[in-house]
Amino acid sequence: xxxxxxxxxxxxxxxxxxxxxxxxxxxxxxxxxxxxxxxxxxxxxxxxxxxxxxxxxxxxxxxxxxxxxxxxxxxxxxxxxxxxxxxxxxxxxxxxxxxxxxxxxxxxxxxxxxxxxxxxxxxxxxxxxxxxxxxxxxxxxxxxxxxxxxxxxxxxxxxxxxxxxxxxxxxxxxxxxxxxxxxxxxxxxxxxxxxxxxxxxxxxxxxxxxxxxxxxxxxxxxxxxxxxxxxxxxxxxxxxxxxxxxxxxxxxxxxxxxxxxxxxxxxxxxxxxxxxxxxxxxxxxxxxxxxxxxxxxxxxxxxxxx
Length: 306
Fold this sequence. Notes:
single chain; alpha/beta; Rossmann fold; 6-stranded parallel sheet; 10 helices
């Protein structure tokens, strides 16, 4: 099954015209648990679902119950609105995830929606020993502020409140200053080669600019879903299930050095407004990996001959 070619459940709706109807359709697609797609199976692996901006754990409750029915052990983030300082949020999540991983004896699956996925990427780079698989849902991985214009006022409002000292709100220093410099560096760093990484995105995302979801380190899966409804849309769940079932073969060890160059090139292209060609990036990575493998094989042969 190719998760990038999952059959559409209905004719696409224009999100800017019918956002309420679209989200309601996605909510209804998983409302009755008797019609849920089969969950991925795993006996006791910890899982953490990180909610998006202005959302809390309750926003992903339905997906959490679905994963639990497949044998995953869910660990709550404790997030109510996801408006906090990124560094502080990551540190708090690390403490919770450490406990879950230590108890289970194996790394966790982390699924993040929107800002939650961006935080998930930072977490996976910061503590790769805690994460087996990262799945992001409509997350602006290449630029956390790559959103549509109507979303920016809410981000700036939170930043203004945080700068004024309102607790639980990120500040302008978090966005551009020294406060979250560590997290920004982790977001720009090569992704750990042993952690599976899948990014779900929608070209009709009404909140995030979809090209910002195309982190070259990830497997890109296009779905038809709204931004708000991505965590409860049946199509999202089917894609998540597909990739969690096959997570042991999703990534190849040794690709980090290739991905590093691709990430930097993609970020420069995104900053300049150029279209990120995911296929070209993947092809370049594959060619570079093949060249590196050939060079290694030649070196080994030379060493053996000597």
